[in-house]
Write a structure and sequence with these properties.
14 strands, Rossmann fold, alpha/beta, binds 5'-O-(N-(L-cysteinyl)-sulfamoyl)adenosine, four-stranded antiparallel β-sheet, about 400 residues, binds zinc ion, about 15% strand, five-stranded parallel β-sheet, Four Helix Bundle (Hemerythrin (Met), subunit A)
Length: about 400
Amino acid sequence: MRAWPAPDVPTLSVTGPQVSLHDTATGSRVTPVPEGAARLYVCGITPYDATHLGHAATYVGFDLLNRAWRNAGHEVVYVQNVTDVDDPLLERAAKVNIDWVELAERETQLFRDDMTALRVLPPAHYVGAVESIPLVIDLVQRLQAAGSVYRVEDDLYFSVTADPAFGQESGLDRAAMLEIFPERGGDPDRPGKKDPLDCVVWRGEREGEPAWDSPFGRGRPGWHVECTAIAQEHLGAAFDVQAGGSDLVFPHHEMCAGHAQVADPSAPFAKTYVHAGMVGYDGAKMSKSRGNLVFVSALRNSDVDPMAIRMVLLRHHYRTDWEWLDGELWEAVDTLEQWRRALSLGAGAPSGPVVAEVLAALADDLDAPRALRAVDAWVAATLGTDGLADTSDPDAALAVHAVLDAALGLDL
Ligand code: 5CA
Ligand code: ZN
């Protein structure tokens, strides 16, 4: 699948520090040491209603990792999927009476346009579920060969007990898993299952639903195998970071880890699991099913500067849950005006410390709010909000402009 165009990113004259991240699996801070290129997988959208600000926060959050790694001198191989066939997409298409392929294409294009406007670096491999069906079939066959797959009517299930490490990614106990599972696509009560937590890897054909030929009969991929198969194909085993919103910690990333572990016990799926907090609106998590959404495209259509949207997202640390407030957008519009004014002066307060602080903050578990505070202070000193403008560094604006663009994705 086609990704979106890459923005130009300036190369900085200083190298950033190695990036440390909070790892969900161990609950601790880790500093992944990429062997060769850094390998990153971020779970992509299910394209039936894109792109709300929760999605945008997650993709901008991991864009900071992509940029921090590059600024630390690593090459990055970034992979993202598109769940372009799954229950929620088919249900929405049926509800609004539109062909599911057309709906997926339309929403995926909208997502590309939103990511382009927000200056999110595109993945090297942007991969749809439909185009990955041969990969999924191959993975299901490997899981079968490992004795971890069984049939319930026309559907194939993955047996979670086949993975001795099951639970290691989320760290949840069984009671918590059983509570969350049905809320996130699971079917614990289906008769014939060996364990309520087992998940579908191949869903047999249903009337009125799309289906593809396979050695297990006509059907379509389950959700979790899709990401496992795509990540393994494009990133190999034990890649550096598997990422997504915190709603994917369980069951999605746990199942991905489980599939990979059973298919190839010699290596883990990913070395590190990183999760973004949930963005809410009107008192609840912003979600397609709830309908309390603010869309990036709607803001863009009302002529909101995409850099102001990006700035609001950056004001919140990627791991916190937070609520979208329209007032913060208008504050960001004002702040950008100030920042642009300071940058237009050319000379300004010394750039060395602010550049170093921005890079250090981002390498410290992607602390964008701290990075922005450093820039706020530089702008205040440069404009002399206390009556003492500091223009001691003749090339300050050039250097600050470059780090804002390269590290924070703000092109001002
Ligand atoms: N296609 C699957 C992943 S394979 C999926 O979860 N799609 S999604 O469209 O529902 O979500 C896309 C990404 O946005 C996921 O990483 C998800 O964790 C994240 N996300 C969804 N809602 C929010 C929210 N309210 N706040 C922050 N991130 C969110
Ligand atoms: Zn995924």
